[in-house]
């Protein structure tokens, strides 16, 4: 299982954000994502007025600085990771192309909120996103079918439900429970995550309380816990696959930038290279470079041992 | 109808200390990782000081960043695991989301590992039995085994596998078999390995109750009948829990709480509840319970109770796997009577196995 996570903390001014992060750290979350919500992200520029030139903020501007993070964790050894996330509303099918652009893809997580049946189908089937948001502030009118949802389940795209709006308003509470039960009926409790979407720090709840809320949505105990833990971990693996891996299988990194836990790969490939000097026909190295990562749980990472060789490849990856 | 998982289980026993099977010893000694001990004495105004002294005499330490292969080194096994009774539990790790490691007084290294770590570590284990579909694996290594010494294949493998794993913070307490050896030598051992090792302070909480209603309990009657001469066993347990959190003046105010003392009850002029928190060795619990039995007879108290809380995140509750679902309860309470009878309550989490 994985650590408790909250993948939706809306971006806001610095002090409030710090307060929220502090609160989430105290409640025991180990990974949080700061959400940059832009409903007009996908609307083409021509339709907008010229004076509000629309620019997507880069993830660096959204994430808090290192000093702020340090002041939050205060030297506790529990890891606290902050990710960036962008979310938007998808109203028309033709607008989706903007999601592929680099300024959007550089975010750690991408979420869309489809508003019609057609866009919902599109989001489930083809869009390169991590999260599909189910709106909890109005009644879910779309007709869901098993066929619509199953591609999303297969591709590892997750459905998000926010609980903070229902703390603010009792009518939203009705919608949340109604929408959630509808969703659970079709996806059978799989591929669902619960996030906060809090406007104030007071609206955050501890991971076990949130999991307990999951019991109201017809989930069983394990599934309810997964909505804040294991499923969120799967979302992160999916986003990693989208961002860093070519075809979700191969990753190229510099040896110097490798984390300590992955250094064994270098040792292995060094050993193989030494073998190669004696045995010229050995093609073990090329075997090493291709992993079949059909299993979503353990993302295999492959690294080139040769730093000089890896550099051009990395640039190539960035441009695609 | 959906099957509802219970949030907790309560096991109740009624026997006597004089029973030759000595089940109470088994219960105390196999419950290795105790985080707190609480004593409730009715009609008495102070808890005997000996408990505090015992807690202060016991040396417990907080050790930072211990590499796991240190635990299987021969120095450590011969010097501490075999020469005494060692309790060690990883600190700051959650049983449901992290890896947890513990060493029991019987010399068993128990690791409750996540799927990723388990697959990477390369040691043999089994799926945790605490709950269904949880991806936790339990690996057990018997440190006291005859076949566990350097040179054997198994030892070398364990040693190598543990050296690949991350470091852990530990809470440690050790009681040597030989009375001449100082328990603090374990601190020196860690210090010579240049590992930070600090003495753990014991927290004490006191609740005093004056003119307080206490239930009348008859050891022979566990369930209330129509005559109502004695309280029901589950009501008593609930009431003890309320006292442990320091409930005061609860009767007569219906607005805040409708809770009241179970009937029949009587008024006692003084009651006291004292709780110590830290890592508590099971043999201290045993000593204390024996002492309290005598104390109770001397002072002619109607009954007394000792509650021991296990660590919420310990990998074992008694000898079975432990998990954390809604709660990680593993608690036991001895409700003792002057005629050597006792009631034993054991509360565990909903999906744990009954001991």
Notes on the structure:
- The complex is a heterodimer of chains A (320) and B (355).
- Chain A has 320 residues and is an alpha/beta fold.
- Chain A has two domains: 5-243, Metal-dependent hydrolases (TIM Barrel, Alpha-Beta Barrel); 260-319, no CATH class.
- Helices cover 42% and strands 13% of the residues of chain A.
- Chain A contains 14 helices and seven strands.
- A seven-stranded parallel beta sheet of chain A has the order 1-2-3-4-5-6-7, with helices on both faces.
- In chain A, helix 1 runs parallel beside helix 3.
- The longest helix of chain A has 18 residues, at 170-187.
- The two termini of chain A are 34 Å apart.
- Chain B is an alpha+beta fold.
- Chain B has two domains: 8-57 and 202-349, no CATH class; 60-199, no CATH class.
- Chain B has eight helices and 17 strands.
- In chain B, the strands form three sheets. In chain B, strands 7-8-6-5-4-9-3-10 form an eight-stranded antiparallel beta sheet. Chain B has a seven-stranded antiparallel beta sheet with strand order 1-17-16-13-2-12-11, sandwiched between helices.
- In chain B, helix 1 packs across helix 8 (282-299).
- Chain B is globular.
